[in-house]
Recover the amino acids of this structure.
């Protein structure tokens, strides 16, 4: 009877724990409130990234099942799974659609469904138990049946309990796996930070599109003077930068929103950006690199990663190099001015000597005089030196514009042999040419100058044996080679022979061994033409200089042009303007001696006054006159007074680069001092020929002694 009373009390209290009506709207609302409470508790007990995504949701769903039934419990399980995915799976505050996260949510829901089933089973048990108990009170038979059903319910409960234990064990295993994954993630992040701090680059990471939070690696923080991990954004308020700075690009101040990382954070890919950071403490740094945007799952910019190399040392070296280059250019210009001035001042007396010696050679009683021969030898050495200086002046001033054409190499080599064979015969050595039927394309005049210098050197440094020049085709190019059996060049000195005034085996600076400028002219001329010069040599066995040329189209070899007969017999009225009294008097004397009438003056005004109303047949003007007056001005004034048809000649001893450029661009023929009497006489004859033959086959460069 006491047992029945006890059971009666249980039956009386059971409805308060197991509501008879479930699945009402209030039960669904209660389930949502339980989920919200579980979320708040989870946020309080651990950080979002700590794992344990479902730890507080298990009791919430269980209570929802107990109080509201299966429907509210399933709703609570689904909402809990979504909230756990959004809040506690990395990246936090965003849905993680990875298979791992989705599988975890589905397992959680399955677990809770099982729990809900177990709870529902328990509730059914208790309801059946009440029913059976009521029936037992009325019938002993019903009690026996109720006991059987109770045992069956207990069996179901044990099964459900076992299932719950298994689900709990699985949840614990998943929690352990999540903890291990979190540990591995922490290790990966640590390794990434170490990598960023190890690379020799300045790295900036913008964490938002507005670049309000920017962190950097150790190198970036050291540059900004901030602790590692600090916000080094220019917009940072909580932790201002230890070193305030301004940024410049190409010398222009940049606004904060125009900085590379800031632009990349807004979605712009920045490539090869060079900026200068000028710090308020007086320092500066140059950075060069890229900035790449970072995007979220929807493809919207969420930040940027910028990597820059510190090129401050490179910039300092560039400035030092520019300063050194500027100083070298100034020194080179000073050297050019010195050479030009020295050349000009030396050419004036040399010009007078050349003309006077030319006049003496025409006197029969002095022709072939040993003294006159020695004087001519001395003048030849001086002329050669000055001509080489003029060549270097032209090459340094870039006043020479190559004229490329196709020509026969046989014709050119024949001319070179004819010019240099007498010198070889005088030394008792042989000179031989290996003919070829090839054609080349380059500037023939400049190439002849290069090969002429090589042949001249070969003859000069060969005392026995001979010199051979020839050409051959190799790999689609033409190679002209000059071989000699001379003294040879040491291997460690081959690179020095192309320097100015660098002569091997000539410490006494003997004029017989040249001026020391020939190979310097060869190198610069080859560079101007884009040609390659190679040298091979053995001491006491000889040398080989080879010049590479592009192949040209086949052309018919032409004979050397036949000079027109001299018109020296024609008496000319010559207008002469020169402010050098000695040279002017010498020119007047020489021209008078060969039969010309000379009207000379030291200035344009005086020349026009002396000419009167009678026009000259030809005009000779020195380029540099008194003050700022130039020979070109005098020629223009005479042509304006008597007509533009009057031919004119400019004489100059100036090799300054700017002057050389002006004269090369001038339409007036130029003769560079010193000019031999026969050259001047022949040229006067050509210039004074009656039209239309006067200039039919003549060009200004034809009368240049060098080019």
């Amino acid at each position: 009877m006491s047992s029945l009373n006890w059971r009666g009390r249980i039956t009386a209290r059971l409805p308060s724990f197991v509501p008879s009506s479930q699945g009402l709207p209030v039960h669904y609302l209660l389930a949502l409130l339980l989920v919200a409470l579980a979320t708040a508790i989870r946020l309080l007990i651990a950080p979002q990234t700590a794992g344990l995504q479902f730890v507080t949701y298990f009791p919430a769903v269980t209570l929802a099942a107990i109080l509201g039934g299966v429907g509210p419990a399933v709703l609570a399980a689904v909402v809990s799974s979504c909230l756990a995915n959004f809040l506690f799976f990395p990246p936090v505050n965003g849905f993680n659609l990875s298979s791992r996260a989705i599988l975890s949510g589905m397992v959680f829901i399955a677990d809770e469904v099982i729990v809900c089933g177990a709870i529902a089973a328990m509730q059914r048990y208790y309801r059946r138990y009440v029913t059976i108990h009521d029936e037992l009170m009325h019938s002993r038979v019903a009690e026996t049946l109720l006991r059987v059903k109770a045992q069956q319910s207990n069996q179901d409960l044990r099964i459900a309990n076992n299932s719950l234990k298994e689900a709990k064990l699985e949840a614990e295993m998943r929690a352990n796996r999540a903890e291990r994954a979190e540990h591995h993630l922490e290790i990966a992040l640590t390794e990434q930070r170490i990598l960023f701090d190890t690379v020799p680059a300045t790295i900036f990471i913008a964490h938002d599109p507005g670049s309000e939070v920017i962190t950097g690696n150790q190198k970036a923080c050291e540059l900004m003077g901030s602790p590692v991990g600090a916000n080094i954004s220019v917009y940072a308020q909580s932790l201002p930068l230890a070193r305030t700075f301004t940024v410049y690009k190409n010398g222009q101040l940049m606004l904060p929103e125009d900085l590379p990382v800031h632009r990349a954070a807004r979605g712009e890919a920045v490539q090869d950006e060079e900026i200068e950071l000028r710090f308020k403490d007086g320092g500066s740094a140059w950075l060069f690199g890229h900035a790449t945007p970072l995007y979220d799952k929807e493809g919207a910019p969420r930040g940027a990663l910028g990597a820059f190399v510190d090129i401050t040392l490179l910039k300092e070296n560039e400035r030092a190099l520019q300063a050194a280059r500027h100083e070298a250019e100034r020194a080179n210009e000073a050297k050019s001015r010195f050479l030009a001035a020295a050349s000009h001042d030396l050419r004036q007396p040399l010009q007078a000597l050349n003309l006077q010696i030319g006049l003496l050679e025409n006197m029969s009683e002095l022709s072939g005089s040993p003294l006159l021969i020695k004087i001519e030898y001395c003048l030849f050495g001086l002329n050669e030196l000055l001509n080489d200086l003029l060549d270097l002046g032209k090459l340094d001033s870039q006043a020479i514009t190559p004229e490329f054409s196709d020509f026969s190499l046989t014709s050119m080599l024949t001319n070179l042999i004819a010019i240099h064979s007498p010198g070889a015969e005088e030394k008792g050595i042989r000179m031989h040419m290996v003919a070829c039927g090839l054609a080349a394309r380059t500037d023939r005049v400049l190439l002849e100058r290069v090969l002429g210098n090589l042949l001249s050197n070969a003859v000069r440094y060969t005392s026995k044996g001979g010199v051979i020049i020839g050409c051959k085709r190799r790999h689609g190019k033409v190679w002209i080679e000059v071989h000699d059996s001379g003294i040879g060049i040491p291997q460690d000195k081959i690179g020095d022979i192309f320097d100015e005034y660098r002569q091997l085996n000539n410490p006494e600076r003997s004029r017989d061994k040249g001026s020391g400028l020939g190979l310097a002219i060869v190198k610069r001329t080859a560079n101007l033409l884009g040609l390659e010069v190679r040298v091979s040599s053995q001491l006491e066995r000889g040398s080989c200089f080879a010049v590479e040329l592009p192949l040209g189209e086949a052309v018919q070899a032409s004979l050397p042009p036949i000079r027109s007969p001299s018109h020296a017999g024609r008496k000319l009225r010559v207008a002469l303007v020169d402010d050098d009294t000695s040279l002017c008097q010498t020119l007047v004397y020489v021209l008078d001696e060969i039969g010309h009438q000379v009207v000379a003056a030291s200035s344009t005004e005086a020349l026009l006054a002396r000419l009167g109303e009678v026009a000259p047949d030809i005009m000779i003007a020195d380029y540099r006159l008194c003050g700022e007056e130039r020979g070109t001005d005098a020629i223009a004034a005479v042509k304006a007074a008597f007509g533009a048809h009057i031919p004119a000649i400019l004489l100059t001893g100036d090799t300054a680069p700017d002057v050389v450029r002006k004269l090369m661009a001038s339409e007036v023929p130029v003769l560079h001092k010193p000019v031999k009497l026969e050259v001047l006489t022949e040229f006067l004859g050509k210039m004074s020929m009656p039209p239309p033959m006067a200039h039919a086959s003549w060009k200004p460069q034809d009368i240049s002694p060098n080019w």
